[in-house]
Hints:
- The complex is a heterodimer of chains A (320) and B (198).
- With 320 residues, chain A is α/β, with parallel strands linked by helices.
- Chain A folds into two domains: 2-110 and 281-314, ATPase, nucleotide binding domain (Nucleotidyltransferase, domain 5, 2-Layer Sandwich), CATH 3.30.420; 122-274, 2-Layer Sandwich (Nucleotidyltransferase, domain 5).
- Helices cover 43% and strands 21% of the residues of chain A.
- Chain A has helices at 40-62, 81-97, 107-119, 155-165, 173-182, 201-210, 216-242, 257-269, 279-282, 286-295; strands at residues 2-7, 12-19, 22-30, 71-77, 101-106, 125-129, 134-140, 143-149, 193-194, 197-198, 246-250, 273-274.
- In chain A, the strands form three sheets. Chain A has a five-stranded mixed beta sheet with strand order 3-2-1-4-5, sandwiched between helices. In chain A, strands 8-7-6-11-12 form a five-stranded mixed beta sheet, sandwiched between helices. In chain A, strands 9-10 form a two-stranded antiparallel ribbon.
- In chain A, a hairpin with a 2-residue loop joins β7 and β8.
- Chain A is globular and about 60 Å long.
- Chain B starts with a strand and ends in a 7-residue tail after the last helix.
- In chain B, a hairpin with a 2-residue loop joins β8 (116-119) and β9.
- Helix content of chain B is 43%, strand content 20%.
- In chain B, α3 (137-154) runs antiparallel to α4 (159-174).
- The chains are: A alpha/beta (320), B alpha+beta (198).
Amino acid sequence: MYVLGIESTAHTFGAGVVKDGKILSNERDTYKPKQGGIIPNEAAHHHYMLAPEIIRRSLKKANVSMDKIDIFAVSQGPGLMPCLRVGYQISRFLSDKFNKKIIGVNHCIAHIEIARRSTGLMDPVMLYVSGGNTQVITYENGRYIVFGETQDIGVGNMIDKIGRKMGIPFPAGPIIEDLSKKGKNYIKLPYSIKGMDVSFSGMETFVSRLLNTKKKEDLCFSIQETAFAMLIEASERAMAYCKKESLVITGGVAGNDRLNEMGRIMCKERGAKFVRMEKEFSGDNGAMIAYTGYLMRDYETMDVTPLPTYRTDAVEIKYR
Amino acid sequence: MKKLSSGAEAILYEDGDVVIKYRKKKSYRIKEIDEPIRYHRTKAEFQALKRCNETGINVPSPIKISKEGDKLYMSKIDGKQMDYSFSLSNMSQIGEMVASMHTEGVIHGDLTTANILINRSGAVIIDFGLSYFSRKDEDRATDIAMLKSALRSRHPKEAEDAYRLFIASYRKRLGKEFKGVETHLKDIERRRRYHENG
């Protein structure tokens, strides 16, 4: 059984093909604003322009033709409406044209499922960290439950916003990571953990005020150390409370070495397991949508209208 | 000294009638972050326990803080963690306790069923490491929202009934001030990134 997955919730347009659960291809392209943050309509335009080529490349790599696809899976949300609409229209068109099943996939759950597959951990606590999302997720009674989350902005968004003020283009994460390796002096920043939740907008404001007086390297070092310590503490709380013995970190920010190192140390100290995600599947991609669509293959045909605020815990998990 | 238990944040030791809570060093955090957090939380816990204890709210009584600042000495409390012995029958009492605590100006900061002990005399609230003093409606609402999501994630089947019992008695005990808290409760759910109503 072939599944074509389409991802278009935010910056990235991706298409991937999965055959019987095995990933055959994973093609993508990411919109990068010339300046400032994401402009949803511009991102959507990027997706419309590149979609045919990326889908074609994905099929070619998987060595399959469009008429052999059994299920079209689309990332239904959460995300930005103009971007979501691209994936929606394309997958609707294809499923109508070839008269095949279409499945709407929750973007956050796709991150979780590809992380479980990538690490082989069956029932971990998941720290899902990206530009828009920051959630600590556990599985309980047929649902993925958001145990803790950001009360304001995502950690990646905080990093991008500060990066922009430092003159670093999107995505700022990798450059901030490099700069932080040269930082030596820790500058005290707000450590904002509220039980199971975290918050980052205070840190963003605080750092913005220091940009002219402190060294970039020291600020980047301090941002990473503080923000990631908060995330790892929240993850540990979830592990202790929900009695889970392992952790995976997924989402765009999961590409950061220091965050993974902290996760590994925390798990080691509490005798839990930590496996680092393959970088190819941690950021937004089409393969994770195809793979989750494959897991959901027996779900009944559904309405796949975009859901910009689709919550992780809204989906009933029938395949676990 | 006997080791009682080892949680996410601290190790508990028992020495006769006294419990010693030692906040462990966390190697994933740099020293500059880790040490102030551990000292600050130990102190915050001592102060909150003191205030609650003085006003008759069921919590362990604090004794002292170690010289180094990372150990808290308090009275021993028997009981089972509520997440292991969950019962709806305790929820009304917990609602009253939390309301009294809030009236005293104490915000718990980490209100989960793992931080409530159940024994013959009822519920005992523990683990005040993330607590602080505030009388703001918003901070009170944050406490309640936390308990609500803890109920949902750990006790999904009973969560709704449990919350209803809790909030009814909380509202009754807090009286007029509840209105402001309620407004903020709704606001917190709306502020979370993806809430049910879009």
